[in-house]
Design a protein that fits this description.
This protein is of the alpha+beta class. The protein has one helix and five strands. Helix content is 16%, strand content 43%.
């Protein structure tokens, strides 16, 4: 029996709309910030990826709301 790991996506939304996303691929999480072309990561946990995306938004940015998509 072989196991297949599916992908999961969380969309990050702030007061101005969608600001980025987190993608689970295998054992790690990749972060994509809407205004940047390169993905960041991989991060070992979803919580670490959420913190990284929030930090990438810059000083004073509100923590976005994360929803699985």
């Amino acid at each position: 029996m072989s196991m297949t790991t599916g992908t999961q996506t969380w969309v990050a939304a702030g007061p101005a709309g969608t600001v980025g996303s987190i993608h689970r691929d295998g054992e790690g999480f990749l972060v994509r910030v809407r205004v940047q072309s390169e993905a960041r990561g991989p991060y070992p946990t979803l919580e670490a990826a959420k913190r990284a995306l929030h930090a990438a938004l810059g000083p004073g940015a509100e923590r976005p709301d994360f929803r699985e998509h």
